[in-house]
Design a protein that fits this description.
Elements: E1 6-9, H1 13-22, E2 28-31, H2 35-44, E3 60-63, E4 74-77, H3 84-89, E5 98-100, H4 113-120, E6 126-130, H5 135-139, E7 144-150, H6 153-163, E8 168-173, H7 176-199, H8 203-223, H9 228-231, H10 234-243, H11 250-259, H12 264-268, H13 276-291, H14 296-305, H15 311-319
Parallel strand pairs: 1-2, 1-4, 2-3, 4-5, 5-6, 7-8
Antiparallel strand pairs: 6-7
Helix pairs in contact: 7-8, 7-10, 7-11, 7-13, 7-14, 13-14, 14-15
The protein binds nicotinamide-adenine-dinucleotide (NAD) and SN-glycerol-3-phosphate.
């Protein structure tokens, strides 16, 4: 069992919520870039910038010194996907397990996070934690379940024992690729569902989009070596359903704004919080085309984000696609 301090790299909403989880059975040491986050957690037991209104466990300590986390027994890596490489590269060579929690793909390389982590920290065992989890609910200790994917079973069992709470249930898997692809793809599909909401296209359209989006996720996942059962589990379909159903999702809200006719540039300008799907969409579109995988909903989201068509035109194009067999 991992009994020592768990490090948390990233003091956004999800890093803070996961620190709350880890602090339930030991100390959590959280690194944040923003000095106001460090001060607010240490002095007021609250992350006023990214997770206001939630009282944090006294076993959480915050620091602005990344190297202070080097001695931790395991590290939850919770920066946005595009910043993970730089943060891991800035750390000394680590041997403790890295539990990757960002949901995205690297823009410059189209790599998944576990590939990036292996390149930057080759000696560290890699795990992926992903599933239907809004940070504010987890931090308030409301029930949730996640996929914890680790290739080495013994490492997975140790991490699960350290992170499990009566209200937080990690389900073990060895399908690291599947867990990552579910989390990355669902963010893009959530933008599409937000567009349906913003444009007032109705609940039937949203359900159709979730189902056909899941077919896209499955096609892409299988082409990249994921297992179908992982994609149908918590980190795939589970998270897709959550994120496509609520304005608590930043990705869904971004899509809703697009559907209401606002531009991506306006919606993304001066954002403090991250809507990962906006970064993942073009990368995923590129990776899918390179692999010969048909992902028309992802392509439609890309067109809207880059301003290549109005909402009306993009929806019309999707609806004009040839009719085909459901499993095709
Ligand atoms: N919020 C959630 O409910 C939730 C749940 C599950 C997974 N996630 C995933 O967790 C990851 C982090 O999201 P979040 O919600 O905690 O973030 P957030 O939107 O609450 O905060 C933004 C974060 O980005 C960090 N950041 C900005 N610029 C940076 C840089 N140059 N280098 C390093 N970090 C930088 C900020 O310090 C802050 O921690 C994302 O991949 C997200 O998809 C979020
Ligand atoms: O707010 P979102 O859209 O980043 O979604 C948060 C989590 O990923 C939901 O599981």
């Amino acid at each position: 069992m991992v009994t020592g301090t768990i490090g948390v790299i990233g003091g956004g909403a999800w890093g803070t919520a996961l620190a709350q989880v880890a602090a339930g059975s030991g100390e959590a040491l959280l690194w944040a870039r923003e000095s106001e986050v460090v001060e607010s957690i240490n002095a007021a037991r609250e992350n006023r910038l990214f997770l206001p209104g939630i009282a944090l466990d006294p076993a959480i300590r915050a620091t602005d010194d990344l190297s202070a986390l080097a001695g931790c027994e395991a590290l939850l890596v919770v920066t946005p996907a595009q910043h993970m490489r730089a943060v891991l590269a800035a750390m000394p060579r680590l041997e403790a397990p890295l539990i990757l929690c960002a949901k995205g793909m690297e823009e410059s390389t189209t790599k998944l996070m576990h590939d990036v982590a292996r390149e930057e920290q080759p000696d560290a065992p890699i795990a992926v934690l992903s599933g239907p989890t809004f940070a504010h609910e987890v931090a308030a200790r409301q029930p949730a379940a996640v996929t914890l994917a680790v290739e080495a079973q013994a490492v997975g069992e140790r991490l699960r024992a350290r992170l499990a709470r009566p209200w937080f249930r990690p389900y073990l898997s060895d399908d690291v690729i599947g867990a990552e692809i579910g989390g990355a793809v669902k963010n893009v599909l959530a933008i599409a569902c937000g567009v349906v909401e913003g444009r007032g296209l109705g609940l039937n359209a949203r359900a159709a989009l979730i189902s056909r989006g899941f077919a896209e996720m499955t096609r892409f996942g299988l082409a990249r070596g994921a297992r179908a059962e992982t994609l149908a589990g918590l980190s795939g379909l589970g998270d897709l359903v959550l994120t496509c159903s609520s304005t608590s999702s930043r990705n869904f809200s971004l899509g809703k704004g697009l559907g209401e006719g606002r531009s991506a540039a306006e919606l993304l300008r001066d954002r403090r919080t991250v809507a990962e799907g906006a970064f993942t969409a073009p990368v995923l579109d590129r990776a899918a085309r390179a692999a010969g995988v048909d992902m028309p909903i992802v392509a439609a989201v890309c067109a809207l984000l880059s301003g290549e068509g109005s909402v009306g035109e993009v929806v019309e194009r999707l609806l004009a696609r040839p009719l085909r067999a459901e499993g095709a």
